[in-house]
Structure formats: C-alpha cells, structure tokens
Design brief:
- By secondary structure, the protein is of the alpha/beta class.
- The protein has 15 helices and 13 strands.
- The chain has 2 domains: 181 residues, Glycogen Phosphorylase B (Rossmann fold, 3-Layer(aba) Sandwich), CATH 3.40.50; 183 residues, Rossmann fold (3-Layer(aba) Sandwich), CATH 3.40.50.
- Helix content is 45%, strand content 15%.
- The longest helix has 19 residues.
C-alpha cells in the first residue's frame, strides 16, 4: 500500500446512523493513522455536534426527510435535494476520495448518488432488517452493501450483500470480549451510584428520547421501587426538563437526559427497556443484555417493529407493542426480575447473534473498493 486512503462518510439524523459511522471511521484510522476522513451531515441535526466530538471534521448540507405529518413542509423538499446533491457533487469532485460510505438517513442519499455519478466507489451500511428507501435506491450501483440481518437479498443485489453486523462503539464492543458476570455488574452499579445488591432496570428511549416509554416508566416507578427495583432512566433531552420537575431522584432512581457512560450502564443493568433501533439492538446483543423492546411505530417502513420481532422470534428479547406497553410493562418487569433462568436465556440468546467485529468486517469490505488498489 503506497498511501493512506481518502474516505467520505455520510449518514445521520439519529444515533443509529451516527454511531456506526463513527465506529467505521475509527477502524479506518486504526489501520491507516494518516487516513483523510471527512463527514457530510445535515445542518441542525445531531451529527453536526456528535461527529466533531469524536474528533472528525464534518460539513453540513441543507437536506431534510419526507414529513409524514405535514404535506406542506414537503413542498420545498425537491429543491433541497437538488441543491444539496449539487453541493456534494462539487465537494466530491474537489476532494477526489477513494470511496464514499453511507450509513443511512436522508443525508446519505445525495452523497452516495453524487459519488456514483463521479464513478467513486461506494459502500452502503444498512442497519435494519427492513432496508431504508435511500439505500434501496442507490444499491444497484454500490460496490458493497454491508448488512446486519440475513436474507437482505430481497432488498439488494445478492452478489453485493455482505453480512457484517452493525458497528458499535468501541467501549461497548469490549464488553462482549471481557464477558459480563456478577462481579462486573456489581462494580458497574457501584460506579453509577447504585446498590450492587439490588436489581437495576436501564431505560433507553434512543438518542431523542421516547414519550411512550417515559410514560410507562413514570406510571410504574412507585410499584417497581416497592419491589426494591432500581431505575437508571435516560429520558432524552426533549423530555428531561419536564420530567425532572415531576419526578425526583431517590436512592432507587436516577433520571438523565443522556448517558455518556453507556458501557457501565449496560454492565450494571439486569433488564433493559428500549426502543428497537438497529444501533440499540446491536449494543444489547453485544453486551449480552436481557431486554424488553417497545418499537416506535412512527419510523419509516415500521422497521423497528421488524427489528424487535426478529429478536423475539429467536428468544433473544421480549417484544411489546407500544399500544399495549402501559398495561403490560409494570408486572412484566417485576415477573422478569424474579425469573433468573429466563433472564439468563435472553442474555445467552442475544449474545449468540451478536457481531462485535462488525466495524472490522465493514472496513475489510471497504478495502476491496479502494480505487487506487485497482
């Protein structure tokens, strides 16, 4: 190899698209310390802060997704797509990268499309069990398509599909290597300020928070605390101010807008209540966690329900429809906490389908795309 690669990575909107992109970039840097890596994101979305925090540069474009709740807001969408595609085209022509990686979300569409117009190799990373529209549209001319679930050939050209798994944050992937046991769990609980002798429920609503999950937790705090069940509640920045005025922290409860020490949170948890985004599911599996999944019904192609059902079918998680969550979640948590055999089965089955080396496998595929190696 006579030089380091130049790679553009695009994807964002939610943590499920951003954190895999960061993991891929980190793996490229690990192999090629002098690599040139540039991110493209959507202005005013969370990638514009999260990517620089991870140490990589990012340029924003004015792009938005289809608004299902307001047709009027979509009137300017074609113009935004056209202008953003033109901007990316000019940037790629100037940068001349060796490859462009798209990790999903509407922002990755213009980058992948422009790269293919310029004959720059492209790699798609699809996180979900139901492929997103953007990735399906650009898949025909992609060089490689890295997926997390089997049977994705129904969405993409079969010869290009590679089953790699979803890349996760390096501090979390280490858990699958060291393993989780009572000693690790007790230490993590103490580090987070909890009693190591009592069970802990970790509540995750995704990077934005989830009102339906927050309502379920708020409704059941007292009954869970009476059973000596501790709660670490990531409620999301959108809901933190309101909830912190109604719900007060106790020795059994900690409520946070966002969790930075996710490795400790996963290790400390006895049960996780979570949305079913692809990133969350990959982390749950790699950490061998027992989980109750409440998928969001308000996402494209209802992909979270398909993700949750995929795990439930393999006895690797418990799936509850959002419409039934308020009625079922309270007693379910209490029953599950007292059923160690069931918890252990969920943990073992989740771990069996984990893919902790996804980032490495994706970069292996990316290396086959380098234009300068051909």
């Amino acid at each position: 190899m006579n030089r380091s690669p130049k790679v553009v990575i695009s994807g964002g909107g939610t943590g499920g698209h951003i954190f895999p992109a960061i993991s891929i970039a980190q793996e490229i840097n690990k192999r090629y310390p002098q690599a040139w890596i540039q991110f493209i994101g959507a202005n005013n979305r969370m990638e514009m802060s999260k990517i620089p925090e991870s140490g990589f540069p990012i340029i924003g474009i004015n792009i938005a997704g289809f608004q299902r709740k307001s047709i009027l807001k979509n009137l300017s969408l074609p113009i935004k797509i056209l202008l953003s595609s033109f901007k990316v085209y000019r940037l790629l022509k100037k940068w001349k990268p060796d490859a462009v990686v798209g990790t999903g979300g509407y922002v990755s569409g213009p980058s992948l499309f422009a790269a293919q117009k310029l004959s720059i190799p492209t790699l798609i990373q699809e996180q979900n069990s139901f492929a997103g529209l953007t990735n399906r549209l650009v898949s025909r001319k992609a060089n490689a398509i890295c997926v997390a679930y089997p049977e994705m050939e129904k969405f993409f050209p079969a010869k290009k599909v590679k089953l790699t798994g979803n890349p996760i944050r390096s501090d979390i992937s280490k858990i699958s290597l060291i393993g989780r046991n009572r000693k690790h769990s007790d230490k993590a609980k103490k580090n987070l300020g909890f009693d190591s002798t009592l069970p802990l429920v970790l509540v995750l609503g995704g990077s934005q928070g989830a009102k339906a999950i927050n309502d379920c937790v708020e409704l059941n705090i007292n009954s869970w605390n009476k059973q000596n069940i501790q709660i670490l509640w990531q409620c999301g920045s959108l809901y933190f101010q309101d909830l912190s005025q109604k719900v007060f922290e106790t020795k059994y409860l900690k409520i946070k807008p966002f969790l930075n020490e996710m490795d400790k949170a996963y290790l400390a948890s006895d049960i996780i209540i979570s949305r079913a985004g692809a990133g969350s599911i990959s982390e749950i599996c790699c950490t061998g966690s027992a989980s109750i999944l409440i998928p969001s019904p308000n996402v494209a192609e209802d992909h979270q329900t398909k993700n949750a059902q995929n795990l439930a079918d393999r006895d690797a998680a418990i799936y509850i429809d959002e419409a039934n969550a308020k009625d079922q979640i309270g007693q379910l948590v209490i029953n599950l906490i007292g059923d160690e055999d069931n918890l252990e089965q969920l943990r073992n089955n989740a771990l069996k389908i984990s893919q902790p080396y996804a980032a490495q496998e994706i970069v292996n595929q990316l290396e086959k795309c380098w234009s300068w190696k051909k």
